[in-house]
Specification:
about 325 residues; alpha/beta; Aminopeptidase; six-stranded mixed β-sheet; 8 strands; disordered C terminus; binds zinc ion
Length: about 325
């Protein structure tokens, strides 16, 4: 029964957004698709993140984030770029999300560095002769045999490449809560036109939040796909777009599209060098900027086409993407 009521509200909310599509005026078509980008350099301060042979994740995250912000500003001079940290400090995760929500971010970009455990390698170093006995009583015999001796060493992991995380669609309730609590649609210029006069505590409002969750999922997944595409073009190993339902708290708590880029593996010596080099950091940043340009163009195209995204549509057209991601995830080593 409760589900049927919710379904009715969802249908009602869909028809509200369909009717707003009909009513859309030319002035709303030309509004900027994003105004504020929040960049979150992972870790910081006492939290070093993953450690390589000579560097820490937190420093790479900050260096890449600052380069990325400067490049975005260059490409989009009127975008508002905010950072959750610009120095070696550790803001609490909930403060990072709160900062992004309070500043009405339209996009949350989280920069991290990956790590994988080393491989244990056995090396034959020689043989040892051991004594053993067979038989009983008078037939008991002393025998010897040669036993191989190994030395075990841990080699650095060979894992490399980039992967981009988005908040899992199957765990959308948490994101929904963030959206309900922060009500990003209330700050839309034409809120009443789009959604009607709804009470924020009403089930209709919750239904709209559900649609927003799905819209953000679609946007996050699209941007994440564009980011991975750009990394592939410069020859980075593509570890794909992945969904997470746990562990990436900031993605669930930000009431906006959000992605987390794992830029490379600090546990791999070649990648550690790349991640620390100015060239590597610039290449990574340039890829994300190109992806952002594609994302903005995609949003503008949708806006110009008057494609008012309804959650239902966004969700169903994402199903094949979802399946791809899930099957890719299954075929991968952790
Ligand atoms: Zn990290």
């Amino acid at each position: 029964m409760v589900n049927r009521i919710l379904l009715l509200f969802i249908i009602a909310a869909c028809s509200i957004s369909v009717s707003s599509y009909v009513r859309e005026t030319p002035t709303t078509k030309n509004k900027k698709v994003i105004n504020t980008v929040v960049i979150d350099p992972g870790h910081g301060g006492e939290d070093a993140g993953a450690r390589g042979q000579y560097s820490n994740e937190k420093d790479i995250c900050l260096a890449v984030s600052l380069k990325l912000g400067a490049m975005i500003k260059n490409e989009f001079p009127d975008l508002n770029i905010l950072y959750t940290r610009e120095t070696d400090i550790y803001p609490q995760l909930h403060d990072r999300a709160k900062f992004a929500n309070e500043n009405k971010g339209d996009l949350y970009l989280c920069v991290h560095v990956n790590a994988a455990g080393g491989r244990r390698k056995a090396e034959l170093i020689g043989y040892k002769t051991v004594t053993y006995y067979t038989g009983k009583g008078a037939s008991r015999k002393k025998r010897t045999k040669r036993v191989p001796q190994y030395r075990y060493t841990t080699l650095p992991s060979e894992a490399k490449g980039t992967e981009t995380y988005i908040w899992g669609a199957h765990r959308s309730e948490d994101k929904e809560l963030a959206i309900i609590e922060n009500a990003p649609m209330l700050r839309e210029e034409n809120f009443e036109q789009n959604y009607g006069n709804v009470d924020v505590n009403s089930p209709e409002f919750i239904a709209i939040s559900l649609l927003k969750t799905k819209q953000y999922f679609k946007r996050s997944a699209t941007l994440a796909g564009f980011i991975q595409d750009e990394f592939v073009k410069v020859g980075r190993v593509d570890r794909d777009v992945r969904q997470r339902g746990i562990g990436i708290w900031v993605l669930q708590a930000t009431a906006m599209p959000s992605v987390l880029v794992e830029t490379g593996f600090i546990s791999n010596p070649d990648e550690e060098r790349y991640l620390n080099s100015p060239e590597g950091q610039e290449e990574l940043s340039a890829c994300i900027v190109k992806a952002l340009k594609n994302y903005v163009a995609w949003l503008e195209q949708r806006q110009n086409a008057g494609a008012q995204e309804t959650g239902g549509q966004a969700y169903s057209s994402n199903l094949s993407f979802l399946q791809q991601v899930e099957s890719a995830e299954k075929n991968r080593q952790p």
